[in-house]
Design a protein that fits this description.
heterotrimer; A alpha+beta; B mainly alpha; C mainly alpha; A: alpha+beta; Rossmann fold; OB fold (Dihydrolipoamide Acetyltransferase, E2P); six-stranded mixed sheet; five-stranded antiparallel sheet; 8 helices; C: mainly alpha; two-stranded antiparallel sheet; 1% strand
Chain lengths: 340, 293, 284
């Protein structure tokens, strides 16, 4: 029974005049077995939130509950959680086996049981042949797997991941992403995964929390976040290249911002009713597609096209078709989504 | 030692190293050579002739009761100084690492004794133990211990150990603190999440990772106890009572400059040289293995 | 420090304050004793912890020498402090200068016997002055340097630690700087003065603190090299004030002790940052 609840969670540093509030009232309910990604730019508070669940940071206001236990006053060791750190945090003076067995030895599990659990985790993560090595003899990817193994053997209620893929090179990152997905399918443990990379978020999350400056701007599935972003921040954070946000597009009422993704604009040969005329400034060929950087009036705009179509020349005017269902409206002052 | 870029000049480097080389040759190698030479010679009582005696001086040395006693005294002294010094400093460093408020304040107050000369440290402590006005001696007397470092060898040893440790606390404390602070915080957090309490975290994670620092300080403290403590002994017990606190370096001084037995003193110097070389080699070879994270 | 245990934090502070107290106690005692008069001290069993009223008299006696009320003569400490100051400065500055030059030569030049030179300097690490007192004394005596500033300082100047420190530091200076300087037309000494020295400022400051303290606190070497009491540095001069524990004028002794430790202590406290850096760097 390992659901996770955030009830009006607040984090403040300092006291009196020198106070700094970094998390402003996060509310969310995570179901048992869900894989949740907390995503946002540097400094948005995502790691702080994770560390509050872990017990490494104090919870200044509100409650966090694991299962039906409120954990605010519990030490990390008592919360039945396991954590994978960004820099792996493997004990350098212990072998891989001892690293994974450490937590179990402390809990006084019988030796046979410890051996069984470590071997099982090692099998899942393909570490069997590395059990006697020391961390400094392993590659980055291997160390990351040991860190995950250490978490798995504990069979905790919640897994916490603090940007575990950031220190890996691109290829390894993609590979490890798949391994984490596989692991979650097999073990089904409730997981909180922090990252600043929106691709990781989109591919791993069953639901994701998009955070900005300590505020949870949206909590939803990748589809919801992509198709119905709750704010201009979410709209521009998810999706690459980011969503075009225009103040003065044709048909935009005052006090509103129009959002449309580069991939939802179609280049047409002849202007038609409702189409936009834009002036192309730069063209980038990315291989399978082309990015057109253009101007609609005085505002910049990006369009994604197939490479097969002919490339427009810089300075020329092209016409774009928009679809009603692919347009998003946001309030210009608050940035929040307006559902027309 | 390799830099890709070099300056080209025939004579400039020689000029640059000349001052250091001159001093090193005149005041290091020449005297060291002399010590080696003298250690295998013996002068007669008037210094008029010297004869070659090979390793006889050394043989005599190691057959000499008082020399062996001095060896034992020095060994005991260094074990006590290193052991006490490291334990106390480690405790203080661990405490200083934990407190968030006032860490800088404690640090400043704990490191200033480094500035105190061993001689002055000796004088300060002997004042506290001197009779009849010594405060610590008085307190001890109240507790039933008749303190007398002029007559009691153990008391004399305790006195120089305390003075020596007092002076070294700062140095050890600083290095231990730096060592503690170089352990990545995430390791401690991982251990906490794994379920380890503070005591277990210290003994299974922190202390093993601190071992390069501990080993380094052990060697440094032993060298300190062997050599830098001359002043403490000279200012307080003068090697007494009798010869009970005559550590090796004190004996070299005494034999060479008071008893004027140059051959024996030179031989003792050579033995000390060998000890330092051994300790330095040990330090360079084993402490150079840094723990990687 | 993860657990929130106020008791543990309280205990930590307690231990630290105890440590500070033990460390500071001898100093406080010395201060108190230096404010009392010799008779007060000689008659107290034990020493009273209350400061006396003899502060000015005691320090005047200690600094300028003279006779006290019972006719004991005291040598003045002020000239001794002067000797200590000169020695410490000469040793510190001397070491820094010649080590900078040597390290520069070793790192930035290639010359025959460079390896030998390096090894020779390295070996001096293993020969603290205490191990070679006899013959070094003879050499100094033969050179006629007894009872002189030169005799007090020069044999202590050529140490390897400073050279190693600077060599270590120079190795971290990017090669591009040398190449840029060369392209700009600078010769080696120009590079040394205009580029390398300014970059080495913190290392120099760190080393200065350590070496100043080392020079000021010298005991064994001045003991051997000076027979003339006029050339005693203060750390050595204290010893002759202790004539046997019951007859010693402890108030003057303590005052002198305070005077002896004050300058290095001030240097440590004021330049704490460099001091710590100097200690930690010379370890490597």
């Amino acid at each position: 029974m390992s659901s996770l609840s955030f009830r009006n969670v607040v984090k403040r540093y300092g006291s009196g005049k020198q106070q700094l509030q970094v998390i402003h009232g996060v509310n969310a309910e995570v179901a048992d077995g869900e894989f949740i990604v907390i995503v946002g730019p540097s400094g948005c508070g995502k790691s702080t939130l994770l560390r509050m669940v872990a017990g490494l940071e104090e919870i200044t206001g509100g409650e966090i509950a694991i299962g039906n236990r409120v954990v605010n006053t519990l030490e990390p060791a008592e919360r039945d959680i396991a954590m994978v750190f960004q820099n792996y945090a493997l004990y350098p003076h212990m072998s891989v086996f001892d690293n994974m067995a450490y937590g179990l030895k402390i809990r006084k599990l019988p030796e046979a049981e410890i051996r069984a659990r470590v071997d099982k985790a090692a099998a899942i993560l393909e570490l069997g042949h590395l059990l006697e090595r020391k961390p400094r003899q392993l590659s980055g990817g291997q160390r990351q797997r040991v860190a995950m193994g250490r978490a798995i053997v504990r069979e905790p209620q919640v897994f916490l991941f603090d940007e575990p893929l950031s220190n890996l090179d691109a290829k390894l990152r993609a590979q490890t992403r798949l391994e984490i997905q596989k692991l979650h399918r097999e073990l089904g443990i409730t997981s909180l995964f922090v990252t600043h990379d929106q691709v990781e978020a989109m591919t791993l999350a069953q639901r994701m929390m998009v955070m900005n400056a300590g505020v949870m701007e949206q909590f939803g599935t990748p589809e919801e976040v992509y198709h119905r972003p709750a704010s201009t921040f979410v709209a521009s954070f998810i999706g690459s290249p980011p969503m075009n946000l225009l103040h003065r597009a044709p048909g935009t009422r005052a006090g509103r911002i129009l959002g449309v993704r580069p991939e939802h604009l179609t280049v047409i040969d002849q202007p038609e009713a409702g189409s936009w005329a834009v002036v192309v400034e730069t063209v980038e060929l990315l291989g399978a597609e082309r990015l057109l950087h253009a101007r609609l009036g005085d505002e910049a705009l990006t369009v994604r096209t197939n490479e097969a179509a002919a490339a427009p020349s810089p300075g020329s005017t092209i016409h774009l078709r928009t679809r009603e269902g692919r347009l998003h409206w946001f309030d210009a002052d608050t940035g929040k989504r307006i559902d027309a | 030692m390799e830099k890709r870029v070099r300056f080209h000049s025939r004579w400039l480097p020689w000029l640059l190293i000349a001052p250091q080389m001159a001093i090193v040759l005149v005041f290091f190698f020449w005297p060291a050579g002399q010590a080696l030479l003298q250690s295998v010679q013996r002068q007669d009582a008037f210094g008029a002739s010297t004869e070659w005696v090979g390793l006889e001086n050394f043989a005599d040395l190691f057959a000499d009761e008082s020399y062996l006693a001095s060896f034992k005294t020095t060994a005991l002294f260094s074990v006590l100084v290193a052991g006490t010094g490291l334990s106390v400093s480690l405790l203080l460093a661990v405490m200083a690492d934990r407190v968030i408020r006032g860490a800088a304040f404690y640090k400043t107050l704990l490191i200033w004794p480094y500035a105190v000369a061993p001689a002055v440290a000796g004088v300060l402590w002997i004042f506290m133990f001197a009779s009849p006005m010594g405060i610590v001696a008085y307190a001890l007397q109240h507790l039933g211990l008749q303190w007398n470092h002029l007559l009691n060898a153990n008391h004399a040893m305790a006195l120089i150990v305390i003075a020596a440790v007092w002076k070294q606390i700062s140095y050890n404390f600083l290095f231990f603190l730096a060592g503690l602070q170089s352990i990545p915080k995430s390791l401690i957090e991982a251990a906490a999440i794994d379920g380890a309490g503070p005591a277990r975290r210290f003994w299974t994670i922190v202390f093993p990772l601190l071992s390069p620092t501990t080993f380094f300080l052990l060697v440094i403290n032993i060298v300190y106890a062997f050599f830098d403590t001359f002043a403490i002994v000279d200012a307080t017990t003068h090697g007494g009572p009798g010869k009970d606190t005559a550590i090796l370096v004190y004996k070299v001084y005494y034999d060479g400059f008071k008893a004027l037995d140059l051959g024996a003193s030179a031989a003792q110097s050579v033995v000390l040289m060998l000890i330092v070389i051994a300790l330095t080699v040990v330090q360079f070879r084993f402490v150079e293995k840094k723990v990687q994270y | 420090m993860i657990e929130r245990r106020p008791v543990a934090t309280f205990v930590s502070h307690l231990v630290l304050m105890l440590g500070v107290a033990v460390v500071a106690f001898p100093l406080l005692l010395a201060l108190v004793a230096s404010t009392q008069s010799a008779q007060e001290i000689a008659q107290s069993r034990p020493l009273s912890l209350m400061p006396g009223s003899n502060f000015l008299d005691t320090y005047r006696l200690a600094l300028f020498g003279g006779e006290n009320s019972v006719g004991s003569k005291f040598p003045p400490a002020l000239p001794m402090m002067g000797i200590s100051l000169v020695s410490a400065l000469v040793i510190a500055i001397g070491k820094i200068v010649i080590s900078l030059l040597s390290a520069f030569a070793i790192v930035y030049f290639r010359f025959p016997l460079r390896g030998v030179v390096f090894w020779m300097i390295f070996v001096t690490l293993m020969l603290p002055v205490e191990v070679r007192i006899g013959p070094t004394y003879e050499v100094v005596s033969d050179l006629g340097l007894l009872n002189s500033y030169a005799g007090l300082t020069v044999p202590l100047i050529a140490s390897a630690t400073a050279t190693f420190l600077f060599r270590q530091f120079f190795l971290t200076v990017p090669d591009e700087l040398v190449e840029a300087a060369r392209v700009d037309g600078a010769g080696p000494m120009r590079f040394f003065f205009d580029v390398l020295l300014p970059l080495s400022r913190t290392s120099i400051a760190a080393l200065f603190v350590i070496q100043f303290i080392y020079g000021w606190n010298q005991y064994l070497w001045p003991l051997l090299v000076t027979t003339n009491e006029d050339m005693y540095p203060i750390v050595l001069g204290i010893k002759r004030l202790i004539a046997g524990e019951s007859y010693t004028e402890w108030n003057v002794v303590m005052a002198t002790a305070i005077l002896a430790l004050l300058p290095p202590a001030i240097v440590v406290v004021l330049m704490q940052k460099w001091f710590v850096k100097g200690l930690v760097d010379t370890e490597k």
